[in-house]
């Protein structure tokens, strides 16, 4: 039992070490090698543009359901007009970045791990290297940069649509006053909430990028190996997002404190 | 041109190469024979720096490459090209884009020059006019030819072939063997061919090295190999497993 725990702890540390080396290589590549902006653009289309539907549906329905649930609780206390501000703050500070991060990890992380994993087992990565092209420059940097640029925008989009859907549900489906709802959203949401939201999104983007590229680059031979890479990428990236979110909340609350 | 000295490679718990020595002279075609799993491809990948040795040295044109970091291997890889077993074509690109890839990466920007050099490389591998096909629409033999075109388009001084005829029918294999010889004559390249196909060995080699138990067991010409009475070599050349059914 103790041996097994020790082995798991060592494996975990080894994994963190590998991620750190990948992060170092990526930073080195950005500094010493020319960034392939055409590939970054292509990846932004893959990562950002093609994730629109998933992110919009997530934002719209999370905003809607959170509004309804908050309304049911708050209406008993006579605080119906506070629904909008609670939903907006929750979406900006927690649910927007976290849920969008999870959706991006599922859609994009899996795709990156599968694509790079397939390239690994079919010797395409060795072929890249044999042609004098560093795989980090060609595969990892464009994907990580594309995620870093796209994810905050996707999160912002998701949160914006969640607030619109919240307004629609509160005012048109439930009986909240529109002007009060809007006034409370504008009063309680400030630049600090937007900064916290975007900072979290940037951290999650980096996590998704490194975890999924690492899983792809380390995919084992055969269909089982390639099949495992995306699954593990999604699981690890999702769990990392959920855990990191807690620590980011504690840290960022000091920098961007909640409240008016 | 190529020299391997006391090369040892351990993969996991298994030592694949055990102090291997090999020299390949400029312009020669060296065929490395050996049973499946004997470490032929591992040896080949050391020659282009895709593997780092556990110990030993790898010299390419007078430069020791085994300890060079990945970013400094770029200049070596312009001199040494490699054909992978399955072609290793980039499946997101068509034939033309695959072959143009090394040109674009080395800074060639003129579209007309790229187009002409791609067409020339395709003509050399007998695939003229196939520029727009995607890799999934090519047969195994065609993939290898396109892979070879991609390798030679950068005009390397040395070509490494990893199992060039594996998985091909006898006629396609014969065609690839002729192609290797033709390219050798036309481009005057040094070639290292890893195979367990005796026909490829006898058709293309002027030096044959037999890899056995992690070392070069035999190194000589095709005629000397044919005349050998060593049971290990005879069994391999004649394809005898020693089993009785």
Describe this structure in words.
The complex is a heterodimer of chains A (260) and B (245). Chain A is mostly helical. Chain A has helices at residues 2-32, 37-47, 52-74, 83-121, 124-130, 135-173, 178-188, 191-217, 222-255. With 245 residues, chain B is an alpha/beta fold. Chain B contains 9 helices and 10 strands. Chain B is globular. The termini of chain B are far apart. Chains A and B meet through helix 5 of A and helix 2 and helix 3 of B.
Structural class of chain A: mainly alpha
Mean pLDDT of chain B: 89
Question: Cα distance, first to last residue of chain A?
Answer: 51 Å
> If helices are DSSP runs of H or I spanning 4 or more residues, what is the number of helices of chain B?
9
User: Can you give the helix content of chain B as a percent range?
Assistant: 25-40%
Based on CA atoms alone, the radius of gyration of chain B comes out at 18 Å
What percent of residues of chain A are in strands?
A: under 5%
Total of helices of chain A: 9
Low-confidence stretches of chain B: none
Biggest sheet features of chain B: 6 strands, mixed
User: What is the chains' assembly state?
Assistant: heterodimer
Largest Cβ-defined interface:
A-B, 15 and 27 residues
- What is the count of β-strands of chain B? 10
- Low-confidence runs of at least 5 consecutive residues of chain A: none
Strand percentage of chain B: 15-25%
- The helix-strand sequence of chain B is EEEHEEHEHHHEHEHEEHH
Helix content of chain A: over 70%
Secondary-structure element string of chain A = HHHHHHHHH
Shape annotation of chain B: globular
| Overall shape of chain A | elongated
Mind describing the biggest β-sheet of chain A? none
């Amino acid at each position: 039992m103790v041996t097994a725990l020790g082995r798991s702890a060592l494996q975990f540390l080894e994994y963190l070490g590998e991620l750190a080396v990948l992060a170092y290589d990526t930073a080195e590549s950005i500094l010493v090698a020319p960034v392939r902006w055409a590939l970054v653009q292509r990846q932004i289309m893959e990562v950002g543009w093609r994730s629109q539907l998933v992110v919009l549906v997530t934002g719209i329905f999370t905003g809607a359901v959170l509004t309804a649930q908050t309304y049911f609780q708050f209406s008993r206390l006579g605080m119906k007009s506070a629904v909008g501000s609670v939903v907006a703050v929750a979406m900006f500070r927690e649910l927007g970045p976290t849920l969008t991060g999870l959706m991006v990890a599922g859609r994009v992380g899996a795709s990156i791990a599968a694509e790079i994993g397939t390239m690994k087992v079919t010797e395409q990565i060795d072929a890249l290297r044999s042609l004098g092209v560093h795989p980090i420059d060609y595969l990892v940097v464009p994907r990580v940069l594309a995620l870093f640029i796209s994810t905050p925008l996707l999160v912002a989009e998701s949160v914006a649509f969640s607030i619109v859907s919240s307004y629609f549900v509160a005012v048109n489906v439930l009986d909240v006053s529109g002007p009060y709802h809007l006034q409370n959203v504008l009063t309680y949401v400030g630049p600090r909430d937007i900064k916290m939201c975007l900072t979290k999104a940037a951290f999650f983007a980096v996590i998704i990028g490194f975890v999924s590229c690492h899983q792809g680059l380390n995919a084992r031979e055969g269909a089982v190996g390639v099949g495992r890479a995306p699954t593990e990428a999604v699981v690890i990236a999702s769990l990392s997002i959920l855990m990191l979110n807690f620590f980011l909340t504690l840290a960022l609350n000091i920098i961007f404190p909640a409240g008016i | 041109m190529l020299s391997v000295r006391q090369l040892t490679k351990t993969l996991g718990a298994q030592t694949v190469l055990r102090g291997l020595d090999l020299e390949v002279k400029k312009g020669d075609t060296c065929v490395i024979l050996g049973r499946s799993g004997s470490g032929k491809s591992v040896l080949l990948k050391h020659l282009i720096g895709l593997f780092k040795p556990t110990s030993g040295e790898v010299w390419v044109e007078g430069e020791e490459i085994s300890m060079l970091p990945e970013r400094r291997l770029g200049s070596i890889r312009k001199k040494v090209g490699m054909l992978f077993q399955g072609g290793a074509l980039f499946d997101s690109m068509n034939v033309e884009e695959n072959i143009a890839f090394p040109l674009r990466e080395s800074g060639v920007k003129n579209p007309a020059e790229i187009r002409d050099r791609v067409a020339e490389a395709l003509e050399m591998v007998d695939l003229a006019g196939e520029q727009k096909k995607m890799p999934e629409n090519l047969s195994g033999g065609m993939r290898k030819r396109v892979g070879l075109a991609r390798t030679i388009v950068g005009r390397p001084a040395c070509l490494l072939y990893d199992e060039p005829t594996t998985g091909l029918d006898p006629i396609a294999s014969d065609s690839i063997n002729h192609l290797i010889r033709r390219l050798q004559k036309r481009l005057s390249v040094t070639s290292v061919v890893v195979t367990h196909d005796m026909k490829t060995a006898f058709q293309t080699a002027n030096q044959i090295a037999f890899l056995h138990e992690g070392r070069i067991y035999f190194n000589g010409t095709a005629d000397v190999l044919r005349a050998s009475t060593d049971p290990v070599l005879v069994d391999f050349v004649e394809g005898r497993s020693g089993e009785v059914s």
